[in-house]
Design brief:
Number of helices of chain A: 4
Number of strands of chain A: 8
Shape of chain A: globular
Largest interface: A-B, 28 and 38 residues
CATH superfamily of chain A: RutC-like
CATH architecture of chain A: 2-Layer Sandwich
Oligomer: homotrimer
Structural class of chain A: alpha+beta
Distance between the termini of chain A: 34 Å
Largest sheet of chain A: 5 strands, mixed
Number of domains of chain A: 1
Order of helices and strands of chain A: HEEEEHEHEEEH
CATH topology of chain A: 60s Ribosomal Protein L30, Chain: A
Radius of gyration of chain A: 16 Å
């Protein structure tokens, strides 16, 4: 099954990506490496606010992390010129979990993002990862995840350099 | 305008870079990617101490972040063999904002660094970014920022490999 | 002295590496860059639990960070097809120190990891670094460190692409 068939089988529709005209952008490419900015958790189109160990549960935050993974895949599609089949490898995730001092399940929260990527990309989705508890996130979001991915090394790109 | 003309127009003089002889260094290059170590905020040559939400304001921390951006550009110049024109792209910033648990303006603090880089490097300055609240920083600094940049792929480098 | 002779001189035996069959893996390679996942501090084979400034000292955490460096080198050996001599450069460390709000010696904790890498790899071990205080780590670990390294660009790899 292709990446798109897997997304369909999982009943996932990728959201439209808005690329803001700001100093910092949703992704930047260098060579065949794409760096995706930290994506904040959202619920019903708004920032999903909460702090683990205080006012949001691990189960809720897993849904938030899975939602971020879907947003990251949508941004990755934009980075790949609209085609996810150009993605060679999901290389790394960094997952920031908004945590008070005694919450220690950052890995469980993040697993739902890793597992979705594994389901969609298979062997090419196996990634290195760091997941840890931060003191707070922009706008109070409960989770933020950034990604590094490898995009096809096209001959076009090579000769353009 | 070149990068140097823009720096001059902004009335910015790059500080001298001291490269310490330690196990960890100010930057490391791999291929045409340069990784800059986390740079701590400074005021009058000393670490700028403070925690957001407690004893330093967003406006003050924005000045601190802008100052770090200038330090990063100075280190980048050293990495580029003394010539910022060899910088192809500012790829990514990671901004660590020393925050107590209810401060949620990490993105605003970091914007001042992103915007300076945008002013100096233009399109080549558009970067991916993560900005978040950490529990504490080395020596109590209020902000720490690290950078990934792409340096010109020189024929000299290529053949040396 | 080779890397292996240095390890022997330091009386260090690399631990066996278990590569779990999960969505996130111990390392991922892209081109000649290897990204190692965040490795948690261990003591006697179990997670070394503790928070700096509260229930573990800087001296203890330095031992923990040194132990992580050894684990990272073992994973790097696995990434290099069993041969550390294929490592061209230790490029970057990111060190997460589990800290309460007034602990500011994250750099001292991390130095023990940086210094071991310096002892083992010499000039090739000089790395960029960020070290900072996080609110909490998975399973309560006191320190977590991730690594980026450069592996030999083999002709075999090149032609396989």
């Amino acid at each position: 099954m292709s990446v798109y068939e897997k997304l369909q089988a999982l009943n996932i529709t990728l959201p439209a990506v808005v690329l803001p005209d700001t100093a910092d952008v949703m992704y930047a490419q260098s060579g065949n490496t794409v760096y995706l900015s930290g994506h904040l958790a959202k619920k019903d189109g708004k920032i999903w606010v909460g702090q683990l160990g205080k006012d949001i549960t691990t189960e809720e935050a897993k849904l938030a992390a899975r939602g971020i993974a879907i947003e990251l895949i949508a941004t990755l599609q934009a980075a790949g010129g609209g085609d996810l089949k150009r993605v060679e490898r999901i290389v790394k995730l960094m997952s920031l979990v908004n945590s008070i001092g005694d919450f220690t399940e950052q890995h469980l929260v993040t697993n739902s993002a890793s597992e979705l990527i594994d389901e969609v990309f298979g062997e090419q989705g196996k990634h290195a990862r760091s997941a840890y508890g931060v003191a707070q996130l922009s706008l109070g979001a409960c989770v933020e995840i950034e990604m590094i991915a490898e995009i096809e090394w096209s001959a076009q790109f090579w000769w353009r350099r």
